[in-house]
Specification:
The complex is a heterodimer.
Chain A lengths: L8 E3 L4 H10 L4 E3 L5 H6 L7 E4 L9 E4 L2 E5 L4 H6 L1 H6 L1 H8 L4 H4 L4 H5 L12 H6 L28 H7 L3 E6 L2 E6 L24 E8 L6 E7 L10 E11 L4 E10 L6 E2 L13 H14 L10 H19 L3 H8 L4
Parallel strand pairs in A: 1-3, 2-3
Antiparallel strand pairs in A: 4-5, 5-8, 6-7, 6-8, 9-10, 10-11, 11-12
Chain B lengths: L17 H5 L16 E7 L5 E7 L1 H4 L4 E5 L23 E2 L5 E7 L2 H8 L3 E6 L6 H5 L26 E9 L2 H7 L2 E8 L12 E6 L5 E5 L4 H12 L6 E5 L15 H11 L3 E4 L2 H7 L6 E10 L3 E14 L4 H12 L8 E10 L13 H19 L3 H8 L18 H12 L12 E12 L4 E7 L5 E5 L7 H13 L6 E5 L16 H28 L6 E4 L2 E4 L2 E7 H10 L5 E6 L5 E14 L4 E14 L4 H20 L5 E2 L2 E2 L18 E7 L20 H13 L10 H11 L1
Parallel strand pairs in B: 1-12, 10-11, 14-15, 18-19, 25-28
Antiparallel strand pairs in B: 1-5, 2-4, 2-6, 3-5, 7-15, 8-13, 9-10, 9-12, 13-14, 16-24, 17-18, 17-23, 20-21, 21-22, 24-25, 26-27
The chains are: A alpha+beta, B alpha+beta.
Chain lengths: 346, 747
């Protein structure tokens, strides 16, 4: 048996102005783009808006354009388009890589960049049917008062599990937003908050009521950067990340693996995607096995997996170091064998 | 390969149902739309794993506009039903025993109103302690699911043994204990497997109609029309002829569509409301209430001699049967017949216990019990060989059962093709017995599987049309493409083209009794019935031709629409002429054929898997897969190959990622995001070889093929993982976290 979706009114605005006007008129309305996240939540009654504003008829949100030293990507560009876009592939290959391993091919054809940025947080107590949640006395994030993951706290640990945000954090992307109170630009690094209930919209730069992401502006690096995205999941073909890591590096001396600057960001381990702080000190150091070990420890202090998936949090925690090693081995020429010698298994 | 001299049998003919399915014209139960008003039914299911029902108040739901009927156990006869042990009610009276147990049902004008009404039914539950693990269920202090089990009627096969044990089965030969004492080495290990769902594409669905004469019609997506009709009639306390079961097209079953689901609820609603009522499960409901493969706990003990002979073995198997005695009882009963594996072991004891737990009732799933037991047996063969320093292939070869082997149950095994499939798989995969690792973290594994296919009764009718074309009337549903093979058999005997044969699935009122579409038995059971019915037709044609051809029937043959005298092509008479004669004399030509219950046939297969393991994440990538399968004669090789591919993919799922996970006493992953079946991108290239040796008594020498190819999959992959990284995970599924943990424990 299922419980019905809560009835809602569907709006199909013709342009952005009409969309945000509707959002202003109907507080609590939700935008619908690809629907790969929202529709599932509607059916489970974990999203219960009275109004849904479908963005499908609006033109101009699906382009990738070069603007000086930046690439501007429309919020309705799909993951499949992003993964195969020549300029993204050429200039920002790690973004193409992350987009190309979101879910499976059919979902990538629908899921949008904007939707990926504001993906609802996920938890094994939250992403369940109404029947299941009701029988389990609900949870803090929706309809209940206790977080079954950490019953004594008053914090929601649902994990933010999108693949492109850590890459965009590392790239220092800027969001172009518009809303009932006008437009603004927000660095992505100020966008997320750290409670699973409101990781979108809590922070200083978070989404205001009725706001819509129009475009994501990514500064194109002057000096060459190299970046990779690592993702651990059960099936290689589909699935949300159990843990994800973006790592990018600019070399002072590539052959000597001497770091000019290195950035790391994590996903699926916390209620928000997070930059790993403290990597500045690696400037001038060689990316050798010792540095990798230190980077792993650093990342491990940032990632805090909880009992939000059916996979053991200890496994996800262990994957942080594994991902750092794999990413470093891919980025630093010749580092792979050196890491292998140190690895626990040869 | 046997040389075929047939026109249709042995040909890779496309499925005769392809066109209707590709065009979207096939009618599934959810598509059914009777003329006139139809209501949408939904079932209120227990949210608790174990509870007493104090009261059910339907008043608020009844008051909702658009609600047409609500039924509870009050609306049904006070009957316990079951295929093996009568332990279940169509709707719960006083106790619910798993999350999903049926409590009440609603019929309304729309599905949305029915959904709303469910929320308005007030059920007062007193929660009871639940037991979610088969081992815990054996404890003295465990809550009893069926305290009155001793009073239940044993319908078939069940051997209740007190406590929560709904069936206990044991077979043995020789004296294993004495033989262990004399063995040069004894090995012991425990293997466990998870509860896995069949994950068919189409969830359960049915349409119930209460006819003006008081009888019932029910359309259902089922593998077992006749057996289901019997269950429904029992639950409604009417005779079987008062229930007409119309099987619909079936969107996959794999054993999961044999049990009764919501049919009785739909019929009770139809009776109460006066309208047809359709109930379609959601995917989540199907996960909660389907009848999955039982999780197994297998304690295996093996005694070997220094000359690489298996001399003794005991298998102590605990099955998680779930809340009611469904196919778990059948599996427990059948286990001793196949759990000896493909080997000849002089001293053997196999004990199987099927245990009640507060989970969905487990039942049949493609070779029920087969891959679980083979995982233990073939993992042990590899482990023992490694520890004894033997070549694992030679060790197997040394102990494979010979043709004519007498099984523990006393049955003689004919057409044993174990060595042949082993040789074929080695040749196909280029398997080297020296087993050097091809690269770090890469490995190759092998397993030999055995299964017994068959053996229930069927009858069929073949009628000739005026132009000599033929229609096969059958009561069996087409689960696998087997109707194409049945058409090939009819076409072969009558020398017709494929488009001159129609296979028609009829309901239980029109069709003669048919076997269930399960147990790899349709091709043999219904195939034999169809073959005999077609031969009966041919016999009648030959009798009609005696006068015009002036020859005895023994000298006649059918050839492209004519009956002719063998060796004298000029002497022929068109079948249409004979049919005209028949109308004037003996009447229309209709043939009938039947086959009784028959001895199960052993079937073998050897699989080889290549894997690459990421030791850091524990992830396993399958990089190649080879399968040889003993098929008797492949009536339709492309269909056979499809069955092998499908079975391997399902086997990969249960080996690496699939498991119904119960947390906090309830299923945590009742959806396809969290219940992880392999996608096509997770499946390696699969190469197959069919080992053909006509089976003694199959139609045209055919053996069943639906189930056997899933049997060796888990062990082949587990052995490949062992070869790659030197560790053995003894519990399925071998998830990344389990494998990583095992690798780190060893390092």
């Amino acid at each position: 048996m299922t419980y019905p979706m809560r009835p809602f009114e569907l709006h199909r605005p013709a342009d952005v102005a009409e969309a945000v006007a509707l959002a202003g008129e109907y507080p609590g309305a939700q935008y619908l783009a690809g629907g790969t996240d929202l529709v599932v939540n509607l059916r489970r009654r974990i999203a219960e808006p009275d109004h849904v504003i479908a963005l499908g008829a609006i033109e101009g949100l699906g382009e990738v354009t070069r603007e000086g030293n930046a690439l501007a990507i429309g919020a309705r560009v799909t993951m499949a388009e992003l993964a195969a876009h020549p300029e993204v592939m050429a200039r920002l290959p790690m973004l193409a890589e992350a987009a190309g391993i979101v879910a499976g091919p059919t979902i990538r054809g629908m899921a949008t960049l904007g939707g990926n940025l504001v993906l609802d947080t996920r938890c094994r107590y939250y992403n369940q049917s109404f029947f299941w949640r009701q029988a389990n006395d609900f949870c803090l994030k929706k309809d209940g008062s206790v977080c079954p993951v950490a019953p004594r706290g008053s914090f929601c640990w649902a994990a933010f599990s999108a693949d492109t945000p850590p890459v965009l954090l590392a790239l220092d992307a800027v969001l172009e937003l518009t809303g009932p109170k006008g437009g603004r630009k927000v660095p992505l690094r100020n966008f997320y908050g750290n409670d699973g209930r409101w990781s979108i919209g809590e922070a200083d730069g978070g989404l205001l009521p009725g706001e819509l992401i129009l475009r994501v502006r990514i500064p194109l690096p002057q000096a060459p950067w190299h970046g990779v995205y690592e993702k651990v999941r059960v099936r290689g073909s589909i699935d949300y990340p159990l843990a994800g890591l973006a790592m990018m590096v600019r070399w002072k001396d590539e052959t000597a693996r001497e770091i000019a600057e290195l950035r790391m960001a994590l996903t699926a381990l916390n209620p928000q995607p997070m930059m790993v702080p403290g990597t500045e000190v690696f400037s001038g150091r060689e990316l050798d096995p010792d540095a990798v070990a230190e980077l792993s420890r650093l990342a491990g202090r940032t990632g805090k997996p909880m009992r939000t998936t059916v996979s053991d949090p200890a496994y996800r925690r262990a994957m942080i170091a594994t991902m750092v090693e794999k990413a470093a081995a891919r980025l630093a020429p010749g580092l792979g064998p050196a890491l292998l010698q140190q690895a626990r298994w040869a | 390969m046997a040389a075929h001299t047939y026109n249709q049998v042995g040909k890779p003919i496309p499925r005769i149902d392809n066109a209707s399915k590709l065009a979207g014209q096939a009618i599934f139960a959810e598509d059914l739309q009777p003329a006139g008003k139809m209501l949408h039914g939904l079932v209120l299911r227990s949210p608790h794993p174990h509870a007493r029902i104090r009261s059910i108040d339907t008043a608020r739901a009844e008051a909702l506009p658009g609600v047409r009927a609500i039924v509870t156990a009050q609306d049904l006869p006070d009957r316990l039903v079951g295929r093996y042990l009568a332990d279940e009610r169509a709707l719960a009276t006083d106790t619910v025993r798993f999350v999903g147990d049926r409590v009440a049902a609603v019929a309304a004008d729309t599905r949305e109103v029915a959904q709303e009404a469910l929320g308005l039914i007030d059920v007062d539950y007193e929660q009871l302690p639940a037991v979610m693990d088969a081992f815990d269920a054996l404890e003295d202090i465990a809550p009893l699911l069926h305290p009155r089990m001793a009073e239940y009627e044993v319908v078939a096969m069940a051997a209740p043994a007190g406590g929560n044990i709904c069936s206990l089965n044991e077979l043995s030969r020789g004296d294993p204990e004495k033989a262990f004492a004399q063995a040069d080495r004894v090995f012991e290990e425990v293997y466990t497997t998870g509860m896995v769902h069949q994950a068919y594409l189409e969830p359960h669905a049915c349409l119930g109609i209460h006819n003006p004469d008081g009888s019932f019609t029910v359309h259902s997506s089922t593998q077992a029309p006749f057996q289901l009709r019997g269950m429904i009639a029992d639950a409604l306390a009417v005779s079987h002829n008062r229930v007409r079961l119309v099987p619909t097209e079936i969107g996959g079953g794999f054993g999961g569509k044999i049990s009764m689901q919501d049919e009785v609820a739909a019929l009770a609603l139809a009776r109460k409301s006066g309208y047809p009522v359709r109930i379609v499960m959601t995917r989540r409901e199907d996960f909660l209430c389907g009848t999955p493969r039982a999780g197994f706990h297998i304690a295996i003990k093996t005694g070997v001699s220094n000359d690489a002979k298996l001399i003794a073995r005991t298998l102590d198997i605990l099955l998680d049967g779930g809340a009611y005695a469904h196919g778990g009882v059948l599996v427990s009963w059948a286990l001793p017949n196949f759990a000896e594996g493909p080997y000849n072991i002089p001293h053997l004891r196999i004990t199987a216990r099927c245990v009640y737990t507060n989970k969905p009732p487990s039942s049949a799933f493609r070779a029920p019990g087969g891959p679980q037991v083979n995982f233990a047996i073939e993992s042990e063969m590899e482990r023992i060989a490694a520890e004894m320093g033997w070549d694992a292939v030679d060790f197997r070869r040394n102990n494979l059962m010979p043709d004519g082997h007498v099984s523990t149950s006393g049955a003689t095994m004919d057409c044993v093709m174990a060595p042949e499939t082993l040789d074929a798989a080695l040749a196909l995969s280029g398997y080297k017995t020296d087993q050097t690792r091809p690269a770090p973290n890469r490995g190759r594994g092998l397993a030999v599987g055995n299964w017994n296919v068959g053996g229930m009764a069927s009858a069929a009718v073949v009628k000739l049309n005026d132009d000599g074309s033929a229609t096969l009337l059958t009561g069996v549903v087409d689960l696998t493409g087997v109707h194409t093979a049945l058409a090939q058999i009819v076409a072969e005997v009558l020398d017709l083209a494929m488009d001159q044969v129609t296979v028609k699935t009829l309901d239980t009122e029109s069709a003669p009794h048919a076997t269930i579409a399960a147990g790899s038995q349709v091709l043999k059971s219904m195939g034999d019935a169809a073959l005999r019915a077609t031969e009966h037709v041919r016999e009648q044609l030959f009798a009609l031709a005696v006068e015009p051809l002036d020859a005895p029937p023994s000298r006649m043959e059918l050839h492209q629409g004519d009956v002719r005298v063998k060796g004298a092509p000029g002497r022929s008479v068109p079948v249409t002429n004979l049919l005209g004669r028949a109308m004037a004399t003996s009447g229309p030509v209709v043939g009938q054929g039947a086959t009784g219950n028959y001895k199960r046939m052993p079937s073998f297969g050897t699989h080889v898997a290549d894997v690459e393991v990421d030791p850091d994440t524990g992830q396993v990538q399958l990089t190649g897969y080879w399968a040889s399968q003993d098929v008797g004669i492949a009536v339709n090789p492309v269909a056979v190959e499809g069955q092998i591919h499908g079975a391997i993919v399902q086997g990969i799922g249960m080996t690496l990622s699939e498991e119904m996970i119960f947390h906090d006493d309830r299923l945590a992953n009742a959806n396809f995001l969290d219940y992880k079946i392999p996608s096509v991108l997770d499946v390696p290239p699969i190469e197959t070889v069919l080992v053909e040796q006509p089976a003694v008594d199959g139609p045209f020498g055919a053996k069943g093929i639906g189930e056997p190819p899933i049997v060796p999959v888990p062990a082949a992959i587990a052995n490949a993982i062992f070869h790659a990284v030197g560790v053995r995970v003894t519990s399925l599924p071998i998830t990344p976290e389990k494998l990583r943990k095992a690798i780190r424990a060893k390092a």
